[in-house]
Write a structure and sequence with these properties.
This protein is of the alpha+beta class. It is built from three helices and eleven strands, in the order ββββαββββαβββα. A hairpin with a 5-residue loop joins strand 2 and strand 3.
Length: 170
């Protein structure tokens, strides 16, 4: 994807050219749109997770703060499995997979390296002004994640700040 801010166009990887009046950056923690607003931005947290099937499933959310420095581990029940994961500062990216394996062993759950998925998180990296000319950043692209849980933008936060966004678009 290539953005031409002067001509208000986006060229997709297929070659298709799209015109825009407003460009909404909703492209996640690795946002290309955010880099137009903040060229030095890099997401600063990494989470790894996988689903572990077992029976019975206990109906208890578990959070472990001693699993890794600058992060935590979790074991959340789903319908018929657990979501087991670990998140930490990207400085720990070289050891996070090993820490996840140890964490699974410590809590008595199996570890399956083939089923691991990962995501970058813009932990504590929110944009104070998510609007620049005709660009608006939302969600992870704007860094709107809870600083404790790493969860995404809450509707209440957006509604409380909607007037700021609206007035900036005028």
């Amino acid at each position: 994807m290539e953005v031409n801010q002067e001509e208000h166009t986006v060229v997709l990887s297929s070659g298709e050219v799209l015109s825009y009046r407003y460009l909404i950056g909703a492209d996640g923690a690795n946002s290309q749109i955010r880099k137009l607003v903040d060229s030095k931005y890099k997401p600063n947290a990494l989470c790894l997770e996988f689903d572990y099937s077992t029976y019975p499933i206990e109906d208890e959310i578990q959070v472990f703060f001693s699993v890794i420095n600058s992060g935590y581990g979790w074991c959340f029940p789903k319908k018929d499995k657990y979501a087991i994961g670990i998140g930490s500062d990207v400085k720990n990216s070289k050891i996070i997979r090993t820490k996840l394996q140890k964490f699974c062993n410590d809590i008595g759950k199996g570890f399956n390296e083939q089923k691991i998925s990962g995501a970058m998180i813009p932990f504590g990296k929110f944009v104070k002004k998510p609007v620049s000319e005709n660009i608006l950043l939302i969600g992870d692209a704007a860094g709107f994640v809870d600083p404790v849980t790493g969860e995404g933008l809450y509707l209440l936060f957006f509604l409380q700040n909607a007037h700021l966004i609206h007035s900036s678009l005028r």
